[in-house]
Design a protein that fits this description.
This protein has three domains: about 15-90, no CATH class; about 95-195, 2-Layer Sandwich (Tetrahydropterin Synthase, Chain A), CATH 3.30.479; about 200-270. It is an alpha+beta fold. The N and C termini lie far apart (about 105 Å). Strands 3-2-5 form a three-stranded antiparallel β-sheet. The protein has helices at about 1-20, 25-40, 45-50, 125-130, 135-150, 155-160, 165-180, 195-240, 240-255, 270-279; strands at about 50-55, 55-65, 65, 75-80, 85-90, 95-105, 110-120, 185-195. It is built from ten helices and eight strands.
Length: about 280
């Protein structure tokens, strides 16, 4: 934040110094000569002197190489002198561009291919014209290098799980670097992270092994709970012979519901004991 304030202050100081020196005697003579030509060639010169910029545009006017009024003109109509003034139109709308896929070596020595998208706009038209030759192209190059620098400090696990934090870190870095250019970086998004095929297979095998291990643990817990339930049920049934008879009848009803050709009728244990005692 401090660097951003210093950059804006230095830009303002440069513009103030350039305008405080004035145009000089030769400059004013040229301006007066230009005004004279404009008056002589009226009304044809009106079409050359009156310019229009749209609502989303601003015009930075240079008069004999100096920026006039230290600010941009527009939107609407503005006036320029035909011989001494020229202007540069600056688009103030938000611009988006794709960061080409970058081969990046992470902190844990894994090579990945990462791409993204950046949204930015011109915040100060004067700085975007006076401080950098091509603000759009410079921002694109800076976004590529920033992506490499930020992801080079992250592990593969952080890269896959914390995309939002990485995008926010990139946005802050880009916004701080482009403040001197009059550029405001509004948003940065990580689009895709491509891993090598061998690493993908290894991660898939690891995930499958982890799922199998969890499935075995769950099955073992289920068998343990089932065995405890059977133990409790056997204790309850052993205390009541009538409950054992009902269990026999329930088993017969299940067998009858199935399409089996052979049906086995189990005999109660107490009946078998009575037959043996009679013998």
């Amino acid at each position: 934040m401090l660097n951003k304030v210093k950059a804006e202050t230095s830009t303002t100081d440069i513009l103030e110094d350039g305008n405080s020196a004035g145009l000089g005697c030769c400059g004013w003579l040229l301006v007066l000569f230009s005004l004279l030509i404009m008056l002589v060639t009226l009304p044809i010169s009106i079409f050359m002197c009156i310019k229009v910029v749209q609502e989303y545009e601003r015009a930075v006017i240079f008069r004999l190489g100096r920026i006039t009024d230290k600010r941009a003109k527009g939107p609407g109509i503005f006036f320029v002198l035909p011989c001494t003034d020229n202007f540069v139109k600056v688009d103030m709308r938000t611009v988006s561009f794709n960061i080409p896929p970058q081969e990046i070596l992470t902190k844990d020595s894994v090579t990945v291919s990462v791409d993204g998208v950046v949204y930015f706009r011109v915040k100060c038209p004067v700085s975007s014209v006076a401080n950098v030759s091509n603000s759009d192209f410079s921002t694109r190059l800076l976004a590529q290098t920033t992506l490499r620098n930020v992801l080079g400090t992250k592990n593969l696990a952080e890269l896959l799980s914390d995309r939002e934090g990485i995008a926010h870190s990139m946005q802050e870095t880009l916004d701080e670097a482009t403040a001197h250019w009059g550029i405001k970086v509004e948003r940065v998004e990580i689009k895709d992270v491509k891993l090598p095929q061998q690493l993908q297979r290894a991660m898939a095998a690891e995930a499958e092994a982890s799922r199998e291990a969890r499935a075995k643990v769950i099955a073992a817990e289920g068998e343990m709970n089932a065995s405890r339930a059977l133990k409790d049920a056997s204790l309850i049934i052993s205390e009541s012979p009538a409950a054992l008879q009902l269990r026999y009848l329930q088993t017969l009803s299940h067998i009858a519901a199935e399409k089996n050709s052979t049906i086995i009728f189990p005999l109660p244990l107490d009946l078998m004991q009575q037959l043996l005692q009679r013998k």
